[in-house]
Amino acid sequence: RPWYSDRAAWLFAAPSLLIIGVFIIWPIVQSFRYSLYDWVIGAEEQEWVGLGNYAALLADPLFWGALRVTLVFAFASVALQLVLGYAAAAALLRDSWLTKTVRSVFFFPTIVALATIGMVWRFLLDANIGLVAGLTAALGLTPVAWLQEPDLALPTLIFVNVWKNVGFTMVILLAGLKGVPQSLYEAARIDGAGWWSRFWNVTIPMLSPVILFNVVMAVIGSFQVFTQAYIMTGGGPGDATLFYVLYLFRRAFEFYDMGYA
Fold first, then answer.
1. Mean pLDDT, the chain, as a whole number?
2. What phi, psi does 63 have (nearest 5°)?
3. Are 155 and 163 in contact (CB under 8 A)?
4. Entry pTM
5. How far is CA 167 from the centre of its chain?
6. Residue 164 in 3-state DSSP?
7. Which residues contact 191 (CB under 8 A, 6 or more apart)?
8. Do 256 and 180 form a contact (C-beta atoms < 8 A)?
9. pLDDT for 151-185, tens place per residue?
10. CA 73, CA 30: separation in Å to the nearest integer?
11. Rounded alpha-carbon distances, angstroms, from residue 46 to 28, 33, 76, 165
12. For the segment 217-238, what is each residue's pLDDT rounded down to a tens digit?
């Protein structure tokens, strides 16, 4: 039947389609158009460069470095969130006042603003006045410049990202674990399956949709990382924490190279 026979359905979908068109599709189209110019904000005429920006991108070592940093960050963050989130969910599976309290403690960082987390951890890890440095010195050890050492800055940001998001992963996995029928575990025990066999053949298959959801959400969040790096390290030291979104921001709003950005 013709598409216009479902007028009521199209009318209900119209507000969402309008929002998607205005705030998603149109910006994508405009961004592609800008990328074909040496775009300068406020200029009366923009210089056409065709695919010149894309050619420059492929030869830009900073872009490839930023992409590598982002991929390392995403892979490590997602893996750690899944492992630690599952461990926390399994440990806190039973309902009691203690487990409910600990769940709330784990989940609390998830609702805190990224800017606040960035500023707090920047202060805590400061090599001169930070609480961590103070405790380290009190133990007779040399304080570590966590955010100033090229080899430590990225792992530190990964740690902060996992600390913030592991509670969300835990809650989703906890809901998934509660939805696994106990009869499957009982049948596996009767068949002589051990802990690992039950985990691999019962828990993982039953949790696969939940795990996929967590992976997708964690990957999206990791590839959008900006605030933590901007506040805590500014992309440094050197380019050790220069994520690709941060590099995009620099090219657009510090160098005003909008077409390339």
1. 90
2. -65, -45
3. no
4. 0.87
5. 13
6. helix
7. none
8. no
9. 999 999 999 999 999 999 999 999 999 988 888 88
10. 29
11. 19, 11, 41, 42
12. 999 988 899 998 999 998 888 8
Amino acid at 167: G
Question: How open is the CA angle 132-170-234, to the nearest 5 degrees?
Answer: 40
- Rounded to whole angstroms, the Cα distance separating 76 from 57 reads 26
C-alpha span between 201 and 198 (Å, rounded): 5
Q: Model confidence over 22-56: pLDDT tens digits?
A: 999 999 999 999 999 988 777 778 889 889 999 99
| Whole-Å CA distances, 231 to 9, 26, 119, 122 | 46, 31, 7, 8
Q: What count of Cα atoms within 13 Å lies in the side-chain half-sphere of residue 1?
A: 4
| Dist CA 155 CA 14 (whole Å) | 45
Distance of CA 238 to CAs 59, 152, 225, 242, Å? Answer: 20, 12, 18, 8
Nearest to 122 by CA among 157, 163, 83: 157
